[in-house]
Design goal:
The protein is mainly α and 622 residues long. The protein has a domain at 21-31 and 39-289 and 354-464. It is 76% helix and 0% strand. α6 packs antiparallel against α7 (210-232) and α14 packs across α15 (413-430).
């Protein structure tokens, strides 16, 4: 192999590794729990190791004096990842794959920074990343368009379009993110291509220009955005796409418009009030389109802010948000200060639908400040490289940042990968890449230490985390038997898997239910008390009440049912269980009072189960 060819092959290997990592978006959820996070993690883990190996090989073979002048911005991102991993591991509430998730994302960031550290390959890598984003975006659009027109099934029974995500909102956020890059390429390449066509006309040589294909892919992607983004019905994704459009269009459109308006001030006096009316009307229409959803998110934000106010410096810890949130929401909705509207829209959620508030609740204000500071340095880097691709990446990161204000993208591994990539590119653009011949000894030593850290963490992840895949697969094989209610058959297997899966709320609920069905309510109670610290699902407390009821502890069972109803007052089942409890314990007056509440309850969605419960209550009251 000739010497010039070797670095080029290694560069292509890096791009292929990064492209494979972007393929995490297409990994389906074959492993429990419900969702895709565990399946995507076991896809993500070996690919980070592969990227680390290729980066190390490139450093040793192609550019032995590879260096990345690490600065403050890099330290902030690494500190955020290590702090989150340390808090998650020390608290015991985060599953092992959750801890390794933070560590491997940190390694992924450092790998990208090492690859972008020399001046020779930075431009090629950035062009390759732009192409990868567009190709992945187009593949996602093809899947979503097939769903929209009935040629494919979505991943959610209630929604027609989800792409490879579990509901439409992440799809809308992803489209908004990639549209920032696509719009920038259209703006940057459209004028040169138009001049070329006007000067020479059509020529087959255009097919040899990379810019021609990038422009075509960008235009095709934006056409898909126009078809799909409204179908997602994600208002915050629309706002993210609008933010990306404003950033890209500021220089070619907004600045000339401002100059034109300065010369015609009377037009501004007409347009500004009109724009205000359109903004108010659009905001009102967006709110009314899904008013219950908006009210529910406001309740979640208020509750999360109370959590932050109570523990501003250390937070509750990663993995504990959902459990602590349920306690705060139950306390608020049980108080006289809560409104009936809040009780009607309350739900059980594992996310705050605002990633910034959730980060502050989990890691405290120091964690939030680390994230905001990292974003600040990334946008500074984009500003320095504005004309060489920085505008598109800045628009993409801005769209993702806006989307995170009213959704939960950074709770999903696929979006964490996207965030890490964009921040690495931004902070990498903040500092001048060094020519290989001018690398200082200190930079070489620092890069060697960073590369050694990445290799050690990647190796340890294979040694420690990869074997957990067999554990999750074994859990997946148990679930069909669990749904068939063959509890005696699976009881021993659940006991065997418990040490490795003790931080998975779904597993704990299934295990507790198995213990309940095999006649061990005391063991089930111990498991549920652990699960209640990790989840706000009221079904945990319903099962807890059933266990206390089996032991004859009716006061404890009553408290558990009331707690289940307090966190989500819009559900009928806890009230039905309370009615049955009062009937069984001989509390006739309380049974009749609670039974009337069940019959008069205004449930959100009527179902056969609700009608059956009410029919039973009518018989008890006769």
């Amino acid at each position: 192999m000739t010497r010039p060819l070797r670095p080029r092959l290694l560069l292509w290997s890096i791009l292929l590794s990064v492209g494979a990592l972007l393929g995490t978006l297409f990994v389906s959820g074959t492993l429990p729990p419900a969702g895709m996070e565990s399946s995507q993690f076991f896809y993500f883990l070996p690919l980070v190791g592969l990227l680390t190996f290729v980066t190390a090989l490139r450093a040793l073979v192609a550019t032995p004096r590879l260096a990345t002048g690490f600065r403050l911005g890099d330290s902030l991102v690494v500190a955020l990842g290590l702090y989150a991993a340390l808090r998650g591991a020390s608290g015991g509430a985060l599953s092992p794959i959750g801890v390794w998730n933070y560590l491997l994302l940190t390694v992924f960031y450092l790998d990208l920074r090492l690859c972008l550290g020399t001046r020779r390959d930075r431009r090629r890598l950035l062009c390759g990343l732009i192409l990868l984003f567009l190709l992945v975006g187009l593949a996602q659009e093809i899947i979503a368009l097939r769903q929209l027109y009935g040629y494919g099934l979505s991943n959610h029974a209630r929604f027609r379009v989800t792409g490879t995500f579990h509901n439409p909102a992440p799809l809308g956020g992803f489209l908004a993110l990639v549209s920032g890059i696509a719009l920038d390429r259209i703006a940057r390449l459209g004028r040169p291509l138009a001049r070329y066509l006007g000067w020479r006309g059509w020529s087959s040589k255009l097919l040899l220009l990379p810019g021609f294909w990038i422009f075509g892919l960008s235009g095709l992607f934006q056409l898909g955005v126009l078809l799909l983004l409204p179908a997602t019905q994600s208002r915050i994704a629309w706002l993210g796409a609008l933010t990306a459009l404003l950033i890209v269009g500021w220089e070619p459109l907004v600045r000339p418009l401002r100059r034109w308006l300065r010369e015609r001030k009377w037009v501004a006096w007409v347009l500004v009030p009109l724009a205000g009316l359109v903004l108010v009307g659009g905001t009102t229409a967006a709110y009314r389109m899904k008013a219950r959803s908006a009210d529910g998110r406001l309740l979640m934000w208020k509750t999360t802010l109370r959590m932050v106010a109570d523990r501003p410096w250390d937070g509750v810890g990663p993995g504990r948000f959902a459990g602590v949130y349920g306690d705060y929401q139950a306390a608020w909705l049980s108080s006289p200060h809560a409104s009936d509207g809040e009780r009607q829209v309350a739900g059980s959620s594992g996310a705050a639908f605002n990633d910034y508030l959730q980060l502050a609740a989990e890691l405290g204000l120091p964690g939030l400040l680390l994230m905001v500071a990292a974003l600040f340095f990334a946008f500074r880097g984009f500003w320095r490289r504005w004309r060489s691709g920085g505008c598109g990446f800045a628009a993409a990161l801005a769209a993702l940042s806006v989307f995170a204000v009213a959704s939960y993208p950074l709770q999903l591994l696929s979006f964490r990968i996207l965030w890490t990539m964009l921040v690495a590119v931004g902070i990498g653009g903040l500092y001048d890449a060094r020519p290989v011949a001018g690398v200082r000894a200190g930079d070489r030593i620092g890069s060697g230490v960073v590369l050694g850290f990445c290799l050690v963490v990647s190796a340890l992840s294979f040694w420690t985390a990869w074997p957990l895949r067999r554990t999750y697969a074994a859990w997946g094989r148990l679930e069909p038997l669990y749904r068939m209610e063959r509890f005696e058959t699976v009881a021993t297997d659940y006991e065997r898997l418990a040490p490795a899966l003790g931080a998975e709320p779904s597993f704990l609920f299934e295990w507790a239910n198995v213990r309940n069905k095999v006649g061990d309510p005391t063991g089930s109670i111990a498991i549920l008390e652990r699960a209640a610290g990790l989840s706000s699902d009221p079904m945990l407390y319903n099962l807890l009440g059933n266990n206390y009821r089996a032991l004859g502890d009716y006061p404890s069972a009553e408290r558990a049912y009331l707690r289940a109803w307090a966190v989500v007052p819009g559900r009928l089942y806890p009230l039905y269980l309370l009615t049955d409890l009062y009937r069984e314990s001989g509390q006739e007056a309380r049974m009749r009072a609670m039974g009337r509440r069940v019959l008069e309850f205004d449930e959100r969605v009527s179902s056969p189960a609700v009608r059956e419960m009410r029919a039973r209550v009518r018989k008890w009251l006769e």
